[in-house]
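queue> holo job accepted (D-ribose)
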Amino acid sequence: MIALGCDHGGYNLIVAIKKYLEEKGIAYRDFGTYSEESVDYPVYAYKVAQAVVSGECEMGILCCGTGIGISMAANKVKGIRAAVVGNAFGAEMTRRHNHANVLCMGGRVTSEEDAVKFTEIFLNTPEEGGRHDKRVAMIKEIEEGTFM
Ligand code: RB5
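queue> job finished
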């Protein structure tokens, strides 16, 4: 199950991503917003982040105008590694190296076509272990306040 969320600035991307997920038969839960009426992105970041850390959803996708504000809010939730992605290489590497569990994109900087492409890459790229496990463990230690 994929958790989806957006504000008004990312609504168009989420519409395109939902169409893609439906075509592929991938289950999702849409936490809103559901129109281009102005809303506050932290609300949707929080709902999606909670769905991921609770285990209800394996991964999340969040979109706002730039992808930045909504990623900042999501990253405040313990256990979330939200990545703002603007190219295919980033979509792949943030899964392989950073074990990102939330993909963030911006409706004012990324086309719907690219957002679907980055989503497909993100959802189909595995996490790499070894040195990357060690580094992600360090991120978790920073989060816990036990690092260094
Ligand atoms: C909303 O106008 C805009 O600030 C928001 O979508 C996002 O880009 C924030 O980072």
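queue> Residues 11-24 form the longest helix (14 residues).
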